[in-house]
Write a structure and sequence with these properties.
- The complex is a heterodimer of chains A (111) and B (113).
- Chain A is an all-beta fold.
- Chain A contains no helices and eleven strands.
- In chain A, the strands form two sheets. In chain A, strands 2, 4, 5, 9, 10 and 11 form a six-stranded mixed beta sheet that branches.
- Classes of the chains: A mainly beta (111), B mainly beta (113).
Chain lengths: 111, 113
């Protein structure tokens, strides 16, 4: 059982559409990170959120950390083919040395 | 480029063999983490070293071992390899022993035939 549940598992949309990926848990995290990974490459850090209710924006990407620090979402506006990839959320708990990763959401943006 | 380097990029070997994967962390980072990623298991944490000492263990098999050297590079040793060990192996680094933000290397793709 994954500590972090990501949904949906797969998402295929047309260029220009919006999408949201969710990351949920019953555990409280001291911080949560989002990564994007392309096939055969290492995950690339997109953002770290640490405060409950925090919203961070990175160009067309908006990240939100839940008030209770148990969940997060990633919203992409006007998706482009370059946004295609595997999106992973990862959480750090205060009593843990390691990150716990979700299973990931595979996003495909069709031109 | 994350600043984390891993070698080799690809490794093909036979069952029963032993291999060593190498990782150099970002300059100044003291922690090194090893992960295994396979299609059916996702990204699984294996082990963490901080400044030369083992700090946390995850789902690491007894056939696998790791160490971190005084210059902070790390090696992951995989022995008695099985077909199911075929996967991508990633190294990540961070500044402190509990620092949340980890930076990943490009990975080593291991294929066991």
């Amino acid at each position: 059982t994954q500590l972090l549940e990501q949904s949906p598992q797969f998402l295929s949309i047309q260029e220009g559409e919006n999408l949201t990926v969710y990351c949920n848990s019953s555990s409280v995290f001291s911080s949560l990170q989002w990564y994007r990974q392309e096939p055969g490459e290492g995950p690339v850090l997109l953002v770290t959120v640490v405060t409950g209710g925090e919203v961070k924006k990175l160009k067309r990407l908006t990240f939100q950390f839940g008030d209770a620090r148990k969940d997060s979402s990633l919203h992409i506006t006007a998706a482009q083919p370059g946004d295609t990839g595997l999106y992973l959320c990862a959480g750090a708990r205060s009593n843990d040395y390691k990150l716990s990763f979700g299973a990931g959401t595979t996003v495909t943006v069709r031109a | 480029d994350s600043g984390v380097t891993q070698t080799p990029k690809h490794l093909i070997t036979a069952t029963g063999q032993r291999v060593t994967l190498r990782c150099s962390p970002r300059s100044g980072d003291l922690s090194v983490y090893w992960y295994q990623q396979s299609l059916d298991q996702g990204l699984q944490f294996l082990i963490q070293y901080y400044n030369g000492e083992e700090r946390a263990k995850g789902n690491i098999l007894e056939r696998f071992s790791a160490q971190q050297f005084p210059d902070l590079h790390s090696e992951l040793n995989l022995s008695s390899l099985e077909l199911g060990d075929s996967a991508l192996y990633f190294c990540a680094s961070s500044g402190g022993d509990r620092t949340d933000t980890q930076y990943f290397g490009p990975g080593t793709r291991l294929t066991v035939l």
